[in-house]
Design brief:
Elements: H1 3-11, H2 16-22, H3 33-44, E1 46-50, H4 57-64, H5 68-74, E2 88-92, H6 106-119, E3 124-130, E4 136-142, E5 147-153, H7 162-178, E6 182-183, E7 186-187, H8 188-194, E8 195-200, H9 205-212, H10 220-229, H11 258-267, H12 287-299, E9 303-309, E10 313-315, H13 326-337, E11 340-342, H14 353-361, E12 365-370, H15 382-398
Parallel strand pairs: 5-8, 5-9, 9-12, 10-11
Antiparallel strand pairs: 1-2, 3-4, 4-8, 6-7, 10-12
Helix pairs in contact: 1-3, 13-15
Length: about 400
């Protein structure tokens, strides 16, 4: 299933012709401009409606199959007993925005960001970089508290299942805040009054789009990457692709033992652009990693979590550096997830984001390797991965 098929399902339509009939469109069976526009609410999870005489929030909620509370949350300051005629309201639809059963391309991510920021105006989004293909690298923030934590996912293209992991968690948090509810037995409003959660859910959108099939096989982008991959026949294409589309492994591009990482990877033949393991020409020479470093400095977080796959392990040190409290918190992460707390293997222990953060700040920074198997992990593992990591994501905020 792809995102458009999911949107049809959300709309209750079996096919394009059925959807077009339901929407009162010309029935062509094709994805024309009018059909695409009509489908958009089922991609982003909300629609808009202009208030007319006689409307009430209850009637609007009934009309769109949603709740009064959801409409109130999406439209701050709305006076229920004095609805302004002519005002255009954001109307959240009944389903969750974040899908967990489709390939999570950068386009899917942007649909989710658009939908969540519309439903939950207290969620902020900001593009912090542009990739080779012009894709945004987006930073999200929720919460107003003094403790700042910074989560990231999908440094590596074929580890994209970590992006819906963070996005589902974010949606669950926003939903709990909006209804004064709990997430994992923690009061959401109280939690986010004490913490500010920042996240970059997809550090490497270009690479993710290559692995998830966003680029057509006859496209120049795909064919350029394929030609590069032909120099490394032992690496499956595109499933083995970890790098961005400059052929740089973004989690080997940070100034923490970068020269040693360069030496180690060169011994294995990675001396130039490649599907994985090329460290770049200099630390932070890629827009994605440079933005991550710059915004880490701006945020000044107490803790970072970097999500990768696979192995069900948590890495917590850089060389012999052990930030205060990092082992203890890491052991708690292991208890709530069932993951093993381990030292990073030497050959993989340099130039990563976690390594750089620990070196620069001497604060807890973790790489969490979720799931088990061969990358990219199948979405059939998603529910299990989410349940295993929910405690880590909460504990990272509470400290």
């Amino acid at each position: 299933m792809d995102i458009q098929e999911l949107a049809l399902q959300r709309a209750g339509a079996a096919d394009w012709r059925t959807f077009q009939r339901m929407q009162g469109l010309t029935v062509t069976g094709d994805m024309d401009q009018a059909t695409r526009q009509a489908l958009m609410p089922y991609l982003v999870g909300y629609t808009t409606e202009r208030i007319q005489a006689g409307d009430t929030l209850y009637l609007l909620a009934q009309r769109f199959g949603t709740t009064v509370q959801a409409i109130k949350t999406a439209n701050p300051g709305l006076q229920e007993k004095n609805l302004p005629i002519g005002r255009v309201l954001t109307i959240p639809l009944v389903f969750d925005v974040v899908p967990t059963n489709v390939p999570f391309t950068s386009q899917v991510l942007q649909y989710c960001i658009r939908g969540l920021t519309a439903r939950y105006p207290f969620l902020a989004a900001q593009d912090i970089a542009r990739t080779k293909q012009g894709k945004p690298v987006t930073l999200l923030r929720v919460g107003t508290g003094p403790r700042r934590v910074f989560y990231n996912a999908s440094h590596h293209a074929n580890e994209w299942i970590t992006t819906p992991l963070l996005m589902k968690f974010l949606e669950d948090c926003c939903k709990a805040i909006s209804i004064s509810g709990q997430i994992m037995d923690v009061d959401a409003k109280a939690l986010f009054a004490g913490v500010s959660l920042y996240m970059v859910p997809m550090v490497n959108p270009d690479g993710v789009d290559l692995v998830t099939g966003f680029y057509a096989k006859n496209s120049m982008v795909y064919q350029d990457a394929q030609r590069l991959a032909e120099n490394y026949p032992a690496i499956a294409f595109p499933d083995g692709w970890k790098a961005n589309l400059n052929g740089v492994d973004l989690n080997l591009n940070y100034p923490a033992g970068w020269e040693e990482a360069k030496r180690i990877k060169a011994e294995h033949g990675f001396t130039g652009p490649a599907p994985r393991d090329f460290v770049g020409l200099a630390p932070l020479d890629q827009p994605e990693s440079a933005a991550m470093a710059e915004w880490t400095k701006r945020i000044d977080p107490a803790l970072t979590l970097s999500y990768h796959t696979q192995g069900r392990v948590i890495y917590w040190k850089y060389l012999d550096m052990e930030p205060p409290g990092a082992r203890e918190l890491g052991e708690l992460f292991g208890q709530v997830s069932g993951y093993a707390l381990e030292d990073t293997p030497y050959a993989s222990g340099f130039a990563g984001y976690k390594d750089w953060f620990i070196q620069e700040y001497n604060r807890p920074g973790y790489t969490v390797e979720v799931g088990f198997g061969e990358n990219p992990l199948p979405l059939s593992q998603f529910d299990e991965i989410y349940e295993e990591n929910l405690g880590i994501l909460i504990l990272g905020m509470t400290g």
